[in-house]
Amino acid sequence: MKLRSPYGRLDRPTGAPRALQLVRVLPVLILLALALLAGPDALSAQQTELPGSRVGEQSLRAYWHVFAAYTIVILLIGGWAVSIARRLRDVEDRLVD
Amino acid sequence: MTTVGVRRGATGLTLLGLAGLVGLYWLSFFWVSTEATQGVVQRIFYVHVPAAWTAFLAIGISALCSAVYLWLRDDRLDRAAMCAAEGGIVFATIVLTTGPLWGRIAWGTYWTWEPRLTLTLLLWFIFAGYFMVRSATDDPDKGKRYAAVVAIVGALDIPFIHLSVIWFRSLHPQPVVAKPEGPTLPGDMLTTLMFGLGTFTILFFGFFLFRYALEGLRAEADLRARRSAA
After folding, report:
1. Residue of higher predicted confidence among B172 and B191
2. Domain of residue A39, residue span
3. Residue A52 is assigned to a structural domain of this protein
4. Phi, psi torsion values for A2, nearest 5 degrees
5. Which one of A53, A64, A70, A75 would you mutate to disrupt binding with B, by most B Cβ within 10 Å of its Cβ?
6. Residue B36's pLDDT is what?
7. pTM for the complete prediction?
8. Do B31 and A80 touch (CB under 8 A)?
9. CA B45, CA B40: separation in Å to the nearest integer?
10. What is the ipTM of this complex?
11. A54, part of any domain
């Protein structure tokens, strides 16, 4: 339940308010750090991209194929992980019995 | 190493590998430049080639463990060979599914019976046969021995897969990294590819260790069951 102070402001619970603020800010800081680290390289990498006329030639189908390939990788690796985890749990159950 | 130690190592490697996979996807989609002639579909290369390398590594480990198993008859080697073979099948499946997706755009067809594709498919079938042979005999030791021979024969296919694009007239692109005069890829593409190779290798070893721990526990459970039956 939220507490209301006599001045009408919402009081924070007496936990660690600074830590909470840090947790809220942390993802933004990480994203900024990543952008700063990758920024110049990413910029130089993008400069060698296709000229504008060639970009238009890229069909949407090529993008779908790339996304499908990357999804297959996640599905197969994830499937293998789930399969190992299930078998591990079954064997552990057998050992407990 | 104890099963607990193996699982601890497996957890560390798997988490590192999964973090690497996130990094690889970020590099592939947002950082690396688009190849000038093939366009965006060339980005499949950053998962296709590392998967091929990892499949060959896994199958190589499986064949090596199988060969030593035939010599020493140590069940731990047979277990390691089987775990590596399972990884080989998974990564070979990634190769055989992502490659045709690239081929559809680059060649206009999902599949063509050219040497490298055919030999890779043959490798997949040999290792599918590896698991069938293991369970096809009444005597488990005989199944292990037959499977070890299949793993060694299957691994002999790998040099042919690599050299097929040089020996035969092939549609498949020539090597761009493993060649005598060194890699000919631009820097950012080579970085992304190498990052992918490292990530897939770490992931394979993480899952391999989990799988090895699983087989160790299964052997222990079977032993307990036999003892209680006796």
Report:
1. B191
2. 1-47
3. no
4. -80, 140
5. A70
6. 85
7. 0.79
8. no
9. 10
10. 0.91
11. no
